[in-house]
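Sample pair:
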Amino acid sequence: MPESVIDGHASRLNALREQLKKDGFDGFVIPRTDEHQGEYVPPQAQRLAWLSGFTGSAGLAVTLLDRAAIFVDGRYTIQVRQEVVEDLFAYKHLIDEPAHEWLSENVKAGMRIAYDPWLQSENQINILRKGVEKAGGELVAVESNPADAVWRDQPARPCTKSMPYDLKYAGKSSREKREEIGKLLDASDADCAVLSLPDSVAWLLNVRGEDVDHTPLVLSFAVVHADGSVQWFVDGGKVTSETLSALDNQVEVAEPDALESRLIAFAQKGKSVLVDPATCPERITSLLEKNGAKLVRAMDPVMKPKARKNDTELNGIRAAHIRDGAAMVQFLKWVTENAIERAGTDNPVTEMEAADKLRSFREDVPMFKDLSFDTISGAGPNGAMCHYKVSNESSISLNMNEIFLIDSGGQFLDGTTDITRTIIIGSPTEEMKDRFTRVLMGHISLAMAKFPKGTNGMQLDSLARRPLWDAGLDFDHGTGHGVGCFLGVHEGPQRIAKASSPVALEPGMFLSNEPGYYKAGEYGIRIENLIIVRDAGKMIGLDIPLYDFETVTLCPIDLRLVEPSIMSASEIKWLNDYHAWVREELTPLLDAEHQAWLQAATKSI
């Protein structure tokens, strides 16, 4: 890490500490979030990256006057060591060594630890408060963020133009959706609900925007009422005449600075207000409570309806994946041939070139709007970092007999894609084939799963891990995340993971299936397809619905890395059937040269 970078972050940390002293605080909590608790945040809210250098999508830092720590999950344990100076921040695991435990061990009696109540939820603050108070300290909400006071060149808040999301893609009008949410509020004995997640607002109002990279969001808040009316708190500069004309008279548009006064008015009238303690900023929850609102603490009422895709959305998702699959075939042919041909020359294929080339193929696909996230293009040891972010400085070449992992996706008007493929440049070792095949077996096991109504993702997670567990191996990330429809590539509440996931999987939910294996310093393996939960009939002898998964991602899986001798007959059949389906769907979209390549890449084993 360049000395100038180290000095820069040391200077910023010192400036923050001086500001804390000036404000009368002994420490500060810096999450990697904005007011909307989103994964993708605008440059103005990238406080954690500005302070520490960490650019991952999830993390937290705690700064005391004499020490600091940064907390990241298993996806970023390697990356954090490359981006953050250990002399400035101690490395901690977000799950195994959580921030509240660190606070309980490092805070001294009488210390005042500050936090920004807009940047964390009630649930998060309650956990942190326990740690601070256990040590005899006090956790204090600030009116203004001390990091902003010393971030001299902090970017401005985004203000991009919104657009209506056409009914031919959305499948349901905003009015229909608001009526559905209104009924849920009635059932919850709530007069209204605060929506702080921009994707909830986008889905409910059928609007999209460009306030953050790769996710078509308008950063805004909304309050939805049991009668279906909505107040949308959004910067007026974002609301185009086209957007306004698509909204009906039940939607009132107000400036963001009116939110607090309106919430106070609701509260003082004794309104019953639903807030999600896991996602709503603690500032809003405490403001409502202090002013007399009757709080209904429950999941954001939009999350489940949004997660259950309607038939129009599902058909769009399927169509988008066919077109995206053809782009992936073009890329895989290009990268496989060029990486081998140019290996060892003065002009090898690099990670950055590969990522750029894949984008160029996607840009030619109809209805493409953007990538769905920054492409993870990891050659050799960089592939072992689950969420590696390639840059011109970090980009390395694709070398012979090394594994290359590429995780990418597109935002199309009719759907969002997310796919990971792992390929070998040249010839694999026996270990590589064994590890790849075990990941594939886990992927197939989950893809073939049948399960009764009421099953959640935690109950299915071990299906994808067992082939790795059999060899004493595992991976330190979730197996599957929810995906939006021309919205976030990561969407709740559905997920498949070891961690508690109480939300049952329901027909129409759209998720990833992505087990992996990572050998630090050598290679990474991940195989990711997207899947839809669907009805599979009834359980025999019981009147209980049975569900299974429909795979929608179409793209060859590298057969050169497959070791059939450790696979079962049913696993081999699944792979052969999958490849036959890929050929059938993608061949009509390809020219003769790519058809021939696809035929060879999807041959039966």
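The mean pLDDT is 96.
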